[in-house]
Design brief:
Structural class: mainly beta
CATH architecture: Beta Barrel
Helix content: under 10%
Number of strands: 18
Radius of gyration: 22 Å
Distance between the termini: 18 Å
Number of helices: 2
CATH class: Mainly Beta
CATH topology: Porin
Largest sheet: 18 strands, antiparallel, barrel
Strand content: over 45%
Order of helices and strands: HEHEEEEEEEEEEEEEEEEE
């Protein structure tokens, strides 16, 4: 199951991916309780541009902020014959020392029924709620809350045709809502259905080809005049997913999708293109892991000067288990975003944003049930518009317990 306690900044995710948050990975059969306490410090919470006086924007002498994050959760899983039930519930409480209007108590869940009619026909029925605080990298209102809420309900099934071929199908509903407009991303609701064919090799490799159709609606106002904004859309995708075990130490994951989105009334907002992602994972030794990743994604972003945003990301992650209870992790990442398809009569938005992130962290398992995490991250964005450039340094320290 996915982890649902999402700390305020990506640096915390660097460590919490290794363990200890309110909505943790489902254990073996039985009940597990988890609790956590963390302090997060950001020297530029609202991502003020370089050279801006915080007193002129925020009315304070500093743009720094400290956030206390408390979490509590439980996970339960049990098998009944061919059926399996998984339940993950959690509360995450964010408390800001200075900007208390941003305080949030997030209520999250992750539920799954792994069903099977026969050993050859099986699937999942899932529901999740993920509530967290967005970083202010792409938000513009420091005087408003900045919550992100994502809810998903999905059904999938797989039928084993023979030893290697599977017929797969699924349907789902997703709602991704940002309390503040995010630069380069629209809030939206969507429903999808897909059907496909999967090939599974004996080595653990598999390849899946899917056809997916969806309908939905973008949410939020103020991006463009109503006469030039079209919220309702339909989307078709042809998707290829590949998980390839090259050797015992090397594997890769590839996703390639051809996307076409059409709008109900304003065809100027239609777009099509290719989304792709790739990851290469290498374990040179038993205690070391390296991951190289890249992606290029189109997303709807309706303004006067754009209809679509294209975001390219690249990253390198390294994990080193230096002792039985101690691990180190480092990460380098860069994302580049550009805006496409301006409305008639509007100049193309030539803005090119580049964000670079570097982080390092450590995790110490004090006991089998208690761990201590710490990390430091630096983020810098540059672009043609000086008002979007910023630099930020974030620090994180937290303790987590499970029982």
């Amino acid at each position: 199951m996915t982890r649902r306690h999402r700390p305020l900044w990506p640096l915390a995710l660097l460590l919490l991916g290794a363990g200890g948050n309110a909505l943790a990975q489902v254990p073996e059969d039985g009940l597990t309780w988890r609790a956590g306490y963390a302090l997060q410090r950001d020297d530029n919470l609202f991502r003020l541009p370089d050279g801006v006086d915080p007193r002129a924007v925020l009315g304070t002498d500093s743009a720094a902020e400290t956030v206390t994050v408390r979490s509590l959760g439980l996970a339960y899983a049990k098998n009944w014959s061919l059926q399996r039930v998984e339940i993950d519930l959690g509360l995450v409480d964010y408390r800001y020392r200075t900007y208390r209007s941003l305080d949030l108590t997030a209520k999250n869940y992750d539920l799954a029924w792994r069903w099977a009619v026969t050993p050859r026909l099986r699937g999942s029925l899932t529901a999740s709620r993920d509530e967290s605080v967005n970083a202010f990298d792409n938000a513009s209102r420091p005087d408003q809350g900045n919550r992100r809420l994502t809810r998903r309900e999905a059904f999938d099934a797989a039928y084993e045709l023979d030893g290697v071929w599977r017929l797969v199908a699924g349907a789902g509903r997703t709602r991704n809502i940002n309390q503040q407009p995010q630069r380069g991303e629209d809030s939206e609701m969507s429903r999808t259905a897909d059907i496909g064919l999967r090939h599974e090799a004996g080595s653990g490799s598999n390849a899946t080809l899917r056809l997916r159709h969806g309908t939905g609606r973008t949410l939020g106002e103020g991006r463009a005049p109503a006469s030039l904004r079209d919220d309702a859309f339909s989307q078709d995708e042809a998707l290829l997913e590949l998980n390839w075990v090259l050797t015992g130490k090397l594997s890769t994951q590839l996703s390639l999708a051809r996307v076409r989105r059409q709008h109900d009334t304003v065809s100027l907002r239609d777009y099509s293109g290719t989304n792709a992602s790739v990851a290469l994972n290498w374990r040179p030794t038993a205690k070391t892991q390296l991951s190289l990743r890249g992606a290029s994604q189109l997303s709807s972003y309706q303004t006067n000067t754009a209809s679509v945003a294209r975001t390219d990301t690249f990253g390198l992650d390294a994990v080193w288990q230096i002792a039985a209870r101690t691990s180190l992790k480092a990460s380098l990442a860069e994302s580049r975003r550009r805006y496409l398809q301006p409305l008639p009569g509007q100049a193309l938005d030539n803005e090119r944003e580049r964000t670079r992130t570097a982080s390092i962290g450590a995790r110490w398992a004090i006991t089998p049930h208690v761990s201590l995490d710490g990390s430091l991250q630096s983020t810098r964005r540059s672009g043609a518009q000086p008002g979007l450039n910023f630099a930020s340094t974030q620090a994180y320290v937290g303790v987590d317990a499970s029982f």
